[in-house]
Amino acid sequence: MAKMIFVNLPVADVAKARRFYEAVGATADTRFCTDDTAMMAFSDTITFMLMSHQRFNDFTTKSVADTRSTAQVLLCLSEDSRDGVEATMTKAITAGAKADPTPRQEMGDFMYGRSFEDLDGHIVELVWMDVDAAMAAWSAEPAAA
Prior knowledge:
This protein is an alpha+beta fold and 145 residues long. The protein has helices spanning 14-24, 53-56, 82-94, 131-140, and strands spanning 5-11, 27-28, 37-41, 46-52, 75-78, 98-99, 105-107, 111-117, 123-129. The strands form 2 sheets. Strands 5, 6, 7, 8 and 9 form a 5-stranded mixed β-sheet that branches. The model has no long low-confidence stretch (mean pLDDT 93).
């Protein structure tokens, strides 16, 4: 079995958050969707577990962060191309996301990234990278003194 990641996200309204992430491109796994939880798959190995604040608090005694004013984590999803980054950004904005809460990443011909803030304030970065071109560019940079 491949190693998987399950990102647990507290959300104010599970149904709204589910519709948002479906619009962005995730697929709901209805076997794990209830009134207080929605399992949203981006791939066979990347899943967001959207949980009501009450359900999220079943797993921790810590307070749920106010994601409108505090960032606990920046989530990053890869895309196959610059156009893929833009296509997903368009879907997110159309679904109600705030565009580019973090700086765009413009690194020539080898890396491009943008980000969006979801309905609950979680920041999701989208990035495309040509790893070989990035390694070549970075190895050509002079060493820091």
